[in-house]
UniProtKB/TrEMBL annotation:
Family, as annotated: Belongs to the SOS response-associated peptidase family.
SUPFAM superfamilies the record matches: BB1717-like (SSF143081)
InterPro entries assigned to the protein according to its UniProt record, in alphabetical order: SRAP, SRAP-like
Stated name of the protein: Abasic site processing protein
Length: 205
């Protein structure tokens, strides 16, 4: 269990978080070392960005290049976070179009996805706290559906990923074990962010 010192953000549950929307993330305070659970916007904006309107806002960072990419390397070194999720969606190309699938842990526990965060501040004082998710090559469960998957950080590795412990966080950027996840087809209603209800994660027959 990730213990945060601040109150849980007062936000309704979501079954279909889309880019540009907010999601909860666990971060380590750089001065106190305490863990905070905060709402961040999905779509990474580095602190050095000049124009918020024209800046690209990547929702994913590749594990293979995240430590060296000019966009992400500072955040990878200092601003790593965990993004809790009960499930995530991916799409498989079929002869009839794209079929969405849901992925979740087989043990029923929430996933902790590896992310990076940063804070951008405009000239007028406006602040944007944003994040991106790190993806890696797919494991045997995910590969038939999509070639990439988010990095899932196991509980024993949370201290290393958040910076509580010394070590190389790059070693954690691996596909989840084949026994960790399960996948099932879901309704194409998930394709629209306007649809956001628990029925989205029910299996499509």
């Amino acid at each position: 269990m990730v213990k945060a010192v601040n109150p849980v953000p007062n936000v309704a549950p979501s079954w279909n978080i889309a880019p540009s929307q907010q999601a909860m993330a666990v971060r380590r305070h750089p001065k106190t070392g305490e863990r905070h659970l905060d709402l961040l916007t999905w779509g990474f904006v580095p602190h050095w960005a000049d124009d918020l309107k024209t800046e690209r806002k990547p929702i994913n960072a590749r594990a293979e290049t995240v430590a060296t990419s000019p966009m992400f390397r500072a955040a990878f070194a200092h601003n790593r976070c965990l993004v809790p999720a009960d499930a995530y969606y991916e799409w498989q190309m079929t002869t009839d179009g794209k079929q969405p699938f849901a992925f979740a842990r087989q043990d029923g526990a929430p996933m902790m996805l590896a992310g990076l965060w940063d804070v951008w501040q405009g000239a007028g004082g406006a602040r944007l706290r944003s994040f991106t998710l790190i993806t890696t090559s797919a494991n045997e469960i995910a590969r038939p559906i999509h070639g990439r998957m988010p990095v899932i950080v196991e509980a024993g590795d949370w201290p290393l990923w958040l910076g509580d412990e010394e070590g190389d966080p790059g070693e954690l950027l691996q596909p989840a074990g084949d026994e960790v996840l399960k996948a099932w087809p879901v309704s194409c209603r998930v394709n629209s962010p306007a649809n956001d209800d628990v029925q989205l994660v029910e299996e499509r027959w």
